[in-house]
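TL;DR need structure tokens for one chain.
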Amino acid sequence: MKALHHKQEICDGCRECEKACSKAYFKREDRDYSAIRITNNFNTFHAVMCTQCGECINMCTANAIYRDKNDVVRIDKELCVGCLGCVGFCTELAMHYMDDLMVPFKCIACGICVKKCPEHALVILSSQA
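>> reply
TL;DR here they are.
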């Protein structure tokens, strides 16, 4: 399985990852449109992102959520009916939705944020399932 991993011990909270993600996928630098969100709790930064657990796959009544050949959980925009059940269901709070979008979005472990992180606090890990 391919997934994004955050090293919170070296993250400085610059949020360059959020900017890179939102710009790549939505052509804007707006953390609300980023699939990775950095939170600050007493100067410890934590990344909220999809862990690729797949729990949302079975709850999707439209069968729009699936695993691709790299074991990454994806949303088929053509099949998604926009019910937002996955957004409410996600225990990681990693499914996101914006009013101007037709479907929710999430991290797909693409690595764009990894390349932009100046502290190297993000990495893509691959493991055998």
